[in-house]
């Protein structure tokens, strides 16, 4: 049974670019423990919404609440310490370094839950242990000494996920985690997301609807900057407004 606790909430979230309104009065509620997807046709405002929540952009109006705290005017590093962590871009994986070194760096930047500050005073054995756990979690055991830059695209995603999980997110934000992957990697990475969501909440922007259908507990459909429909996949995919938006899109 899922909790009804809301971990992330936006209230009247609005972003204008000049006279153009990309996100309009969005009231989003993400339940604790859910894998929640933000979908919608091109130009719907998904990326803008995601950037607002991850603090890459500031809203024109509205509020963002994380665990009941107003984070609207906080910066990305501060909210990351509170547990709202965005997956790194692939480019943030250091390609010349080994898989192990990449994960180590991330573990050393982990948040310190009690002090809400980053620390790097782990003993070497704890550090190695934590790295091994993360690599196992994302299926990269055996690739410790491989150069990150030489990994397949799917394994780079896995490494990216490991470095993100190293920061101990409560709410993990993923921006199109399946984009650019082949069929086999799609299934592998979707499996990793499902595993990563155990004990955490995931909010993702994703285009791959068939994966969203099987992976996500709840889906918010955006169109023209506004919430068009919300619910489980069955609900939103049978909503005539959603069908229209995608076809008319
Ligand atoms: P999606 O991710 O759903 O495809 P976006 O959030 O990227 O949609 O974009 C929503 C709308 O906002 C689009 O019409 C886009 O052109 C516009 N937009 C996005 N970013 C900017 C910007 N920095 N300046 C002006 N318009 C923007």
UniProtKB/TrEMBL annotation:
SMART domains: AAA. One of its GO terms (molecular function) is ATP binding. CDD domains: ABC_Mj1267_LivG_branched. Residues 8-249 form the ABC transporter domain. Keywords: ATP-binding, Cell membrane, Membrane, Nucleotide-binding, Transport. It comes from the Bacteria. SUPFAM superfamilies: P-loop containing nucleoside triphosphate hydrolases (SSF52540). PROSITE patterns: ABC_TRANSPORTER_2. It holds the Pfam family ABC_tran. PANTHER family: ABC TRANSPORTER ATP-BINDING PROTEIN (PTHR45772:SF3), CONSERVED COMPONENT OF ABC TRANSPORTER FOR NATURAL AMINO ACIDS-RELATED (PTHR45772). This is Branched-chain amino acid transport system ATP-binding protein. It comes from Ottowia thiooxydans.
